[in-house]
Specification:
Elements: H1 3-6, E1 16-23, E2 26-31, E3 35-38, H2 42-47, E4 56-60, E5 63-67, E6 73-77, E7 85-90, E8 94-100, H3 107-120, E9 123-129, H4 137-148, E10 153-155, H5 161-166, E11 176-180, H6 187-195, E12 220-223, E13 229-232, H7 246-249, H8 251-257, H9 274-280, H10 286-307, H11 310-322, H12 325-337
Parallel strand pairs: 8-9, 8-11, 9-10, 11-13
Antiparallel strand pairs: 1-2, 1-4, 2-3, 4-5, 6-7, 12-13
The protein binds guanosine-5'-triphosphate, magnesium ion and zinc ion.
Zinc ion binds next to helix 9.
């Protein structure tokens, strides 16, 4: 396996590998000439650094001693009460947000996924599966388009090879793609089709409630024969935000909000609220505003726990000052690079 095929863009390096799977404290690493299971060095464990699937690592005496900075990463809050980050996958170029056309289809959930992907630094792509058995396909696509703002949407049946082939464009240039979405929507099925063999187990959904069975239980990275790298993930019961770029995912609301009379308008009962006005004029749905507020308060909560509220407050202040998130991001980048 050449490093280039694994997705490495830089100069070749010795002892370089990519994490392809994690089993408790064992890490599977793909290197140029071999693929094996190993552990991290004691020093790394002591420092509290743990590799994620997709990470580029350096091995010393067969053990992982260094993790390269993650170019992009999808994170969520780990399950439970503790506020800790769980990196789902790293160094990804695209995230396929997979949903099926059956009962799983839920706009608020897709909005949430989109918010998380925007924060990751990777580019989002919507994949809607089970077109062959889906109901109200056009209506669902049209509703999704309303919140997607130019994010590509593919509607497929995984049994149609031509439609699967549409997805191959994202892998050109040895790009890395991660798939996320609820259980049973067909993530592993897409991976098997793209690889041309059954690498992942798939299984039928329970007919009674259309819920998946949680067939995939670990994250796993595969290299496609032609080009590109793909990461499968287990279906998520809930995707709790970690960092989230709420503004980018809801640029329509942000746009209206700038016309509200009060700069700190909560879009509730304030006079001359442009957001409420937009809802009245049918330019926005109340549901979307509710979801936006919900995601924002979640992220405030997480950031308050993490930074004593500092990060959120700073972000809000700068956004207001600069009038746009683009400018805020510039500043953030400059700060981070210092
Ligand atoms: N009719 C139809 N069935 C599909 C399609 N794609 C996947 N399926 C079926 O849906 C079921 C679930 O697919 P999986 O690929 O296991 O779903 P998953 O997203 O990997 O689920 P988890 O691993 O639990 O997260 C399987 O029985 C697939 O055969 C499709 O396009 N049309
Ligand atoms: Mg699966
Ligand atoms: Zn308002």
């Amino acid at each position: 396996m050449s490093l280039k095929k694994l997705g490495w863009l830089g100069e070749p390096r010795e002892n370089l590998g990519r994490i392809s799977a994690i089993y408790r404290d064992q890490y599977r690493v793909i290197m140029e000439n071999e693929e094996f299971l190993t552990t991290i060095t004691g020093k790394m464990r002591f420092n509290g650094f743990f590799p994620a699937v997709g990470d580029w690592v350096i091995l010393e005496e067969g053990r992982i001693s260094t993790i390269f900075d993650r170019k992009t990463k999808i994170s969520r809050k780990a399950a439970g009460n503790e506020v800790t980050e769980q990196v789902i996958a790293s160094n990804i170029d695209y995230v396929f947000i997979v949903s099926s056309f059956n009962d799983d289809f839920n706009l608020s959930r897709l909005e949430r996924y989109l918010t998380v992907v925007y924060e990751s630094g990777a580019a989002p792509v919507f994949i809607l599966t089970k077109k062959d058995i889906g109901e109200k396909v056009d209506e669902k696509i049209s509703n999704l388009s309303d919140i997607a703002f130019g994010v590509p949407i593919h509607r497929i049946s995984s049994y149609d090879d031509m439609e699967i082939d549409e997805l191959r464009e994202y892998f050109t240039g040895n790009k890395t793609v991660a798939l996320i979405g609820s259980s049973g929507v067909g993530k592993s099925t897409i991976i098997n089709k793209l690889l041309g063999k059954e690498v992942m187990k798939t299984s039928g959904i329970r007919e009674s409630d259309a819920k998946g069975r949680h067939t995939t239980t670990t994250r796993e990275l595969f290299v496609l024969e032609n080009e590109g790298v793909i990461i499968d993930t287990p279906g998520m019961r809930e995707l709790q935000l970690w960092g989230a770029d709420v503004e980018q995912g809801f640029s329509d609301i942000e746009k209206f909000a700038r016309q509200c009379k009060f700069v700190d308008c909560k879009h509730e009962n304030e006079p001359n609220c442009a957001v409420k006005q937009a809802i009245q004029n049918g330019l926005l749905t109340q549901k979307r505003l509710d979801n936006y507020k919900k995601l924002q308060s979640e992220i405030k909560y997480i950031e308050a726990k993490q930074y004593g509220g500092h990060k959120y407050a700073e972000k809000a202040k700068i956004t207001k000052m600069m009038g746009s998130l683009g400018a805020y991001k510039q500043i953030k980048k400059i700060k981070e690079n210092r």
